[in-house]
Amino acid sequence: MLPNRYQNLNLIQQLDPVKDHSQIYHLMSGYEFSWEMQRSLEIALMRTYCVPSMSKLLDKTKEFYQRPQKRYDDTSILLVEIVKWGYESDRGKQALQRMNAIHGRFKIDNADFLYVLSTFIYDPIHWNANFGWRLMCEQEKLACFYFWREVGKQMQIQNIPETYAEFEHYKLDYERENFRYSDTNRRVGEATLGLFLSWFPRWMEKPLKPIIYALLDETMLDAFGFEHPSPLLRSSIVRLLKFRARLMHLLPPRSQTNFYIDSPIPSYPNGYEIANVGPDDKGK
């Protein structure tokens, strides 16, 4: 391990997770755990499709079937603009305004908004506990909570729990009460799975599909109606991700950020304006 491998951690541990949560979350997402955060948030978004009330709305828009890559890019852009620049920055405020305008077209229950917000906090923390090259420190976990809690307030989400533990309890209770199979879950889940597979050569589709299943927990697989992978495959994927973590431990810290918007975006090869990200005015 290189001697400066923990330089960002040392800085983070000197910051206040309440007052400095945007700076901490920026360091985590752009430098320390960029690949891990992106993968875990992909799982987090899939988790929200296990709720029939949410998948029914997404199924109705047809975005997942007609333009799956653009739907993925639009979501990623708006979220990452907020994370990279901060919700108080000009770009962060524009992204929040655009997100609120898109959501405002639909009748979405506050409890569903709360649940989606909770997945952005706890799914990356859970992924890190299992596959991180180092464990998140307490400041980082709390920064996840305070960052997304403040974003939730900017989105006019009501009744956001006041503490880290209380919000985590809400998330677990919500999943127990709302995760169940529906045909719309399956359709949206299969469309998302198809998007993930489209990033690889076609010959890899068949072997990759069960690997993706192995990254989903049992309750998600049941809610989607997906085949359960073998215990051997699931344990092999766990070992592979843990091996990757050990290799990452030996690499030097990033010198530049690695946010999704730092690389060319498939749906916007010539760049984008935040005000034009997302579906058109008719939501199509």
UniProtKB/TrEMBL annotation:
It comes from the Bacteria. InterPro entries: MPAB, MPAB/Lcp_cat_dom. It holds the Pfam family MPAB_Lcp_cat. Residues 60-232 form the ER-bound oxygenase mpaB/mpaB'/Rubber oxygenase catalytic domain. GO terms for molecular function: oxidoreductase activity. This is L-aspartate oxidase.
